[in-house]
Amino acid sequence: MTTKDKPNNQRFHFDFGEVFSKTKSFIDAYNNRQTQLTQKLNANQRATAELMIRLYLKQLNKVAQLDTLDPDNLPGFNTYNESLAKCKGCTKRTIINHRERLVNAGFIAKEQHCGKGGVEIWLNPVVLGMAKLSTNYGDNVVKIGDVASLFYEKAKNFHPLVHEQQEQLNNNSKVDKSGTQISGVPYGHESGKATGTGHEQDKNTEENANPAPERQVKAPERQCKAEKQEQQAGAGRIFLLSLIRQFWDYTRKVLYPDLIISEPEEREILNLIWESVYGKFQWNATQKEWLKYQDTAFNRVNMVARWLARSPGHWIPKPHIYFHPNNKRNGFKKTWQWYVKQETLKIEIRNQLLLQQVKAEWQQHEQNKGRFREKTRLQLFRIQQKRLADYRDESLMQAYQQCLNSSLQLQKLKRKQPAHAQ
Amino acid sequence: MLNENMQREALTKCIVWFYDGNCRTFYSFDKTHKRANPNQALGIRRLEKMLMETFKGQWETAIIYENKPNSNELARFKRGARV
């Protein structure tokens, strides 16, 4: 929709209400197109679709806070059949069946099975067409687009507008059923009422923001834990995958500026990076730790870039070889040793500078000079110890003790020498 | 030349226009061994190697497509270079 026209640096916000109404109109339109009752999506399948939408939007909104999203290339909804089944309170098989029906209905545009990684689902962009920027709530174009799409769907099926409207407002409501409402409800909903349970109806009503009875409010509480886990796992996964994408974008810019590759080749490289650079994300770390690791990875890329610039004889292989996990000869893995060496050297230099400073302070203190001249020797020792302890480096503390011992011995020797001379 | 079954199974194909006026279609071989999972990227790399080494200096244009009806273009080569 309008998201394409917007600048990329603005953050996305998916409005739950709007996407739900879009979902509803999509399913209604599909049901209206079907002539046979068995082909229509029932309330149970509708509830699954809405559950998926709810979890997906949560994931997307969370990711949108962490990173900028590409509207043309939104990440898929990463989920597991089992967790969806747990959220919904049904069996795994039911979820698989519902997903199949939703694929046939066009609600799910694409599915990718990732084995242990669950299923990645891409929903129909028409359903997510409500995606818009949080700054543009008053955008007339969006409103016109919504109305136009609704009108189009209705006009296509020649369905009475008045009935359709009432059906939208009271889709799952069991109260105040007038004659017009019953006649306005399409066939699909009749079937849904017959086959569906109260459970799904409750979920829908909750999302339609109708005044919900007590038992309807209780339903989400029961599923809260499973839902949260699902959401966290999905959002975390998207975050981790975005790390790989960022790393590859940066590496490509720095190390392979002239490289032209096709989509399958890029996909393969991303998989190799996932395996060789990020160790298949088997390290159970927090997002903060991953971000820190990402910085080290960028540092390693910079080191390679500097190494390449140092001599024209230096070269690196093509990315599919460079990032291959089995490449021990000239792979990116080797840069980890470089990085460790560099960091160790940095720490050594820092320690040496600190010890030099300590020595200088002691010498000045002996001569009654410097800013610590009024402190006692013990006070000076405590100050220095506190300062060095902040670095949390044991080797530094050991070196400090050695330094102190040697300086004390020197002082003793100095004192003895004049005594011998006398 | 790959047999018909392998041509059907290939994930990518490459159409090459030679300087002598001929035009030929080559199909990718996407497996590292008989029972391996097909790797599309590998097939593309092999086709590229064929263009750059086997038929070096003999073709003017080459385009790699997905081996499907109404397929997408994946890579394009002109006079010995990828564009």
Question: What spatial order of strands do you see in the largest sheet of chain A?
Answer: 2-4-3
Query: How large is the radius of gyration of chain A?
Result: 32 Å
Largest protein-protein interface: A-B, 8 and 12 residues
Radius of gyration of chain B: 12 Å
List the secondary-structure elements of chain A in sequence, H or E.
EHHEHHEEEHHHHHHHHHHHH
| Integer average pLDDT of chain B | 95
Largest sheet of chain A: 3 strands, antiparallel
Secondary-structure element pattern of chain B, one letter each: HEEHEEE
What number of domains of chain B? 1
Distance between the termini of chain B: 27 Å
**SS field, number of helical segments of chain A:** 16
Low-confidence stretches of chain B: none
Helix content of chain A: 55-70%
Overview of the molecule:
The complex is a heterodimer of chains A (422) and B (83). With 422 residues, chain A is mainly α. Chain A has helices spanning 16-33, 43-66, 81-88, 92-105, 140-157, 161-169, 179-184, 187-195, 198-207, 214-254, 263-276, 287-310, 319-322, 335-366, 377-389, 394-421, and strands at 12-13, 77-79, 108-113, 119-123, 132-133. In chain A, strands 2-4-3 form a 3-stranded antiparallel sheet. Chain A has a two-stranded antiparallel sheet with strand order 1-5. In chain A, a hairpin with a 5-residue loop joins β3 and β4. In chain A, α1 (16-33) runs parallel beside α5 (140-157). The radius of gyration of chain A is 32 Å and the shape is elongated. Chain B has one domain. Chain B is built from 2 helices and 5 strands; from the N terminus they run αββαβββ. Chain B has a 5-stranded antiparallel sheet, covered by helices on one side. The longest helix of chain B has 15 residues, at 40-54. The mean pLDDT of chain B is 95. At the A-B interface, α11 of A face α2 of B.
List keywords for this structure.
heterodimer, A: mainly alpha, 3 domains, three-stranded antiparallel sheet, two-stranded antiparallel ribbon, 4% strand, elongated, B: 83 residues, alpha+beta, five-stranded antiparallel sheet, 2 helices, 5 strands
